Amino acid sequence: MAKTQRVHVKLNGQEREAEIEPRLLLAHFIRDVLGLTGTHLGCDTSNCGACTVILDGRPIKSCTFFAVQADGRELLTIEGMMRDGKLHPLQQGFHEEHGLQCGFCTPGMILSAYALLRGNPSPSEEEIRWGISGNMCRCTGYQNIVKAIQNAAAKMQQEGVAA
Amino acid sequence: MIAKTSPEIGGLGHSVKRKEDLRLIQGKGNFVDDVRLAGMVYGQAVRSPFAHARIRSVNVENALALPGVLAVITGKDLEKAGLAWMPTLFHDRQMVLAVDKVLFQSQEVAFVVAEDRYTAADAAELVEVEYEELPVLVDPHRALDPDSPILREDREEKTNHIFHWEVGDREATDRTFQQAEVRAQVNAIFQRCHPAPLETCGCVADYNTGTGRLTLWLTSQAPHAHRTLFAIVGGIPENNIRVISPDIGGGFGNKVPIYPGYVCAVVASLKLGRPVKWIETRSENLQSTGFARDYHMTAEIAAGRDGRVKALRVKTLADHGAFNAAAQPSKFPAGLFSVCTGSYDFQKAFCEVDGVYTNKAPGGIAYRCSFRVTEAAYLIERAMDVLAQELKADPAELRLKNFIPPDRFPYQSPLGWSYDSGNYAAAMNRALEMAGYQELRKEQAAKRAKGELMGIGISSFTEIVGAGPAHTFDIAGIKMFDSCEIRVHPTGKAIARFGTKSQGQGHETAFGQIVAQELGIPVADITVEEGDTDTAPYGLGTYASRSTPTAGAAGAMAARKIRDKAKKIAAFLLEASEEDLEWEPGRFSVKGVPGKSKTIQEIAFAAYTNIPPGLEAGLEAVHYYDPPNLTFPFGTYICVVDIDKGTGETKVRRFIAVDDCGNIINPMIVDGQIHGGLTEGLGIAFMQLISYDESGNVQGGNFMDYLVPTAMETPHWETDKTCTPSPHHPFGAKGVGESPNVGSPAAFVNAVVDALAHLGVKHIDMPLTPWKVWQILKQKGVVD
Amino acid sequence: MIPPSFEYVRPTTISEAIALLEQHGEDAKVLSGGQSLIPMMKLRLARPAWIVDINAIPGLGGIREEGGFLQIGGLVREADIETSELIRTRYPILHDTARVIADPLVRNLATAGGNLAHGDPANDHPATMLALRAEVVAAGPKGERSIAIDDFFVSIFTTALEPAEILTQIRIPIPPTGSGGAYFKLERKVGDFATAGVAAQLTMDANGTCRQVGIGLTNVGPTPIRARKAEEALRGKKLDEAAAGRAAQLAADESQPSSDLRGPEEYKRGLVKELTRRALVRALERARR
To answer: How far apart, in whole angstroms, are the C-alpha atoms of residue B588 and residue B602?
Structure first.
């Protein structure tokens, strides 16, 4: 077995650390070691995006990244989306527009949308679909997900809130 | 007519926002892989690389020697416990772990258990299996050839033929064909595909040596049926098994069968006395769990020159893979395929289906299709278009001419179904209006003159769901009723438990709305539970669009029982006789005496604090509902496509979907189901395929090659409804989850064929990949 | 799903990285974006005993025009190429290419350097770099050297990089005025590799003659292909519809596609022809701006 390594990350604003094998995938690190199971695994060939997390502000597939690579970096998972005990406008938007059914793709989808709105606060439908094209959903047909993101974008513009 | 309740009560027809959202949008769902128990260990299957081979030896020494490995279970180990084979859901048996030979690539051969996932993966690689390859059979059309290998040496009759099934009047149908003025025929393959829910299958099997109970967290669409089957097959007393289906990340039929991984995890837990988690990878899911379709069909229509259809003749070859693990009602080897007369008034019909074994993954499950109804709807809608082409008729007009008229319901189909209600022309006309059909045809003509390829495809499907009445329907012997138990608390809140199990369909909200409608208790005050077999009443689960027709009905009936008791309590409290009381959602009032009433909350409180003499305390009821019939949702879909001549790519420009599922509980949820089902239909029509090369190597066995639409491929869906209630359902609902997946493949294919019809194209098999379309264009000289 | 064990190092200088690669030889692989390597490791098709993560090495980023070249650091992420204003306006062929690599999530990690160094004929940048006549800068035990893109792709999954060399920069000669390029990719769905892809880069004379032509083909051979005969047919000639058609046919003839799940050979050749034509038309439009 390989030498274990110590990994420090800032996860949802909190410092966390653990001693892990280099081959431990970031997704498993988040779920099994740090105990946050909101990040899901839907495939084994890096195609589905269910495992999306935000690394230093950018959405990535946590199944295609080793936890050791995240040493010293910042992570945001779905569990970190609430602000002061309130749902983020994206979470609220998904609820209002029925943007989820089974909920398995939802954390990854919300995080991709979060990154999209940070870079583009007022995206067109085409830009939204492009922005979430790495996130697979089997239930919704994406139509209400688009509406959910538009709902959140509008609300955030109104409130002058950045993502 | 259904009384409309206030938004606060949120009964039928309200687009109540979903309760289940709160935990899911926070990532606080509880999916099977989220379950973490003290002492939990991990299992992984070892799988065959060969499609057909004898097992010469299985050597587990090196795997066992790896630190952290706790056990390696082989077929021989299971054989000692009589568990190497298990019954399938359909009159067959399948191997749990192979002993003598393997029958499909990726079949389970051994099961390793280790302290953590990573060690389990390493251990699986260390199990050494010696195989001796055997000749492979992957073409179902060759299954009955004398020189094809016999796959199932375990069966008494040494043949690859599984069943022959027929229904209808063969002679009368043949006679009608002999006299027919016009005949149209289509050979259509509904390709092997896979439901691929985003969450794969898995379980945590926790045998507690202290209590002697097995708790099984399971990705199960039918927890009670699974519990009973585990008890019977595993020899564990049923009261000592608790199946919990927590949050399920999509099912679509994939989570109805029992898989070897579940059985191995249970065996491992019994052996080790520790919880054993088994979560399959996506590759394992696509390559070994319940596939769908693989129906090779021929349909012939006999018609008059006036376009009136007279007879339908259907012959189908069904490829079931290595084991017949079809999840369908036990009397129906081809499911409800005989609904293939569709929306049309055929006088005579005959349908026969033969099932065969091949060296492929086992199954033939219902993938969002109510037991082969997708195959049936696809076939008849393609055949009608072929007939339209033959007659040079407009496909919309041909359908309108042949629809079963509304006054013929309940309609007896020539293949034995009694359709409850329908108004096909209304849905068709609405769809045509939304589409601007005449304008589209004009546009098409103009484009055609310029050499541009535009197509319009119509599908006017009728499907059959809500299985089903006890006299005809059972799965593995268990009748297909469903159930609901409601308990109203002293403070007027309620809990309702159902025998179904949502995997995203929103039952926690929608089924609460049923109770809200019947009792006038606000939906926010009603907790809905499903999936724990220790507490939920027995049911057959959620698939085949059966939940609203069966469990939903049970919910209404149970609520009505409660209302009956509530009336007695109200009469007592109001010192009136029951005949003098009238009901509006939420209260009983004395007729003609305004102000003299009791709310359901007051009645509930009284049920515990001021009980009428002679009545039991409490306010609850349970109902097991045996549906009198199936229900028949229907609709018309219209698809508009443009084909890129240079690349063969099809762009879906518009898709209009008019659905009729009778009375609707939650319009928002229904629309979500429509969007999702249409997207699956799109994937099936254009890209989804599991295929095998001649050595039995599976292709499309992971998400790199099993293609599922992203937001970019998916068009905007335009939806509308008509409403033709079911006359036999307690609140006139029919179920709708599968309609879009049932009706849409034909719409897509009809559109593409329509775009190429002027070139003489009659039919193209799915998936309609760009290369397939391009090859046709090249053949027809459209591409240089 | 689970990769085999390996040792992991993250050097902070190029020389340290090179030394590690030298030390471990065949047992080591460079980890750049990891979006090709890690999936292969998860399928246990790649089993390096040592992973040398180069992401902490400074000086491998940057997109800038300098010394007559567009310089793209080896670690520049595809997402940054996609959103770069400089690239979108002055090198739209690269914008076209970056935006169709995999999906937006992969692009946040995948690097342009990795896209070339991996040697996968299905990757998208190689064809574009061929069309642009790029150079690859490599740093190794013997120092730094520049490799012409025409010499870079040797065979399937094999490049001209020596075992202990690291791709540090991609340099593209800044095209003269009157230039334009485009990349067209046909994929089965967003996120897929190309069924076929064509990159075309042109420099036009004021009188509509092609002065310079570069045409690269994606995923229709064991390596990315430079369609030399197609280029030859256009160089020094007027680019009209007929000329584009002829060049497109030549490119199709030069391609070496295999039949697979993405389509039969005949289809892929047909695609090369069609996409070459479209890429030339778009490149011409952009050259005229």
So the answer is: 10
